[in-house]
Inverse folding.
C-alpha cells in the first residue's frame, strides 16, 4: 500500500507537470501570436514602402515638368522625408500613432500635388504619370487590406494575452497587448465636397 506521503508527492508531481505543460503551451501560443502580429505589421510597412516608391517615381516625373508649382512639390518631399523617418515599435502605441500621422500627412500633401497636377495637361499625358495613377489605386487597396490583416492579428494576439489562464503566463513572460491600427483622425466625418457649377 502506498503511504499518504507518496500519494501527496504523486499529486504534487502531477500538478507540477500539468502546470508546466500548460505554461509551455501558453508561452508557445503567445510567441506564435506575437510573430503573427510582427509579420502582419511587416506587410503593412511593405505596402507603405511600395506607395512611397510610387510617389518617388511620380515626383521625378513632375520635377521634370517645367513651370510646375514648386512649393507644392516641396511640401510632398518634406512629408515623404518625415514619413520615412518614423520608426515603429508595435509594442508602443505612441510610435504607431506617429507613423499613422506621418503617413496621413504624406497622403494629404500628395493629394494636393495631384490636384495641382490636373492643371498641367502636358504632364497628365505622359505615360509614367498615367501608369502611376493606375498603380497607386491598387497600392492603396493593398494598404487597406494589410492594415485590416494587421488588426485581425492584433485581435487574435490580444485575446490570447487576456484569456485565462494565458493572462497569468502573459504577465509572467511580459507579453502585453498591442495597439490596433486606427482610422486617420477626422475620417469619421463625411468629406465636405463642393462643386462650383454655374
Amino acid at each position: 500500500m502506498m503511504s499518504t506521503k507518496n500519494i501527496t508527492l504523486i499529486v504534487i508531481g502531477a500538478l507540477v507537470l500539468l502546470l508546466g505543460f500548460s505554461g509551455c503551451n501558453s508561452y508557445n501560443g503567445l510567441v506564435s501570436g506575437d510573430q503573427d502580429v510582427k509579420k502582419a505589421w511587416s506587410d503593412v510597412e511593405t505596402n507603405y514602402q511600395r506607395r512611397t516608391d510610387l510617389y518617388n517615381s511620380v515626383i521625378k516625373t513632375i520635377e521634370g515638368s517645367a513651370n510646375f508649382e514648386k512649393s507644392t512639390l516641396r511640401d510632398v518631399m518634406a512629408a515623404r522625408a518625415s514619413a520615412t523617418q518614423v520608426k515603429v515599435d508595435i509594442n508602443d502605441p505612441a510610435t504607431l500613432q506617429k507613423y499613422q500621422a506621418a503617413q496621413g500627412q504624406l497622403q494629404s500633401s500628395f493629394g494636393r500635388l495631384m490636384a495641382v497636377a490636373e492643371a498641367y495637361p502636358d504632364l497628365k499625358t505622359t505615360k509614367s504619370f498615367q501608369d502611376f495613377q493606375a498603380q497607386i489605386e491598387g497600392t492603396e487597396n493593398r494598404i487597406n487590406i494589410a492594415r485590416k490583416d494587421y488588426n485581425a492579428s492584433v485581435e487574435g494576439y490580444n485575446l490570447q494575452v487576456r484569456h485565462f489562464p494565458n493572462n497569468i503566463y502573459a504577465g509572467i513572460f511580459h507579453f502585453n497587448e498591442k495597439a490596433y491600427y486606427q482610422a486617420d483622425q477626422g475620417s469619421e466625418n463625411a468629406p465636405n465636397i463642393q462643386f462650383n457649377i454655374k
Q: What stands out?
A: Confidence is low (pLDDT under 50) at residues 187-198. The radius of gyration is 26 Å.
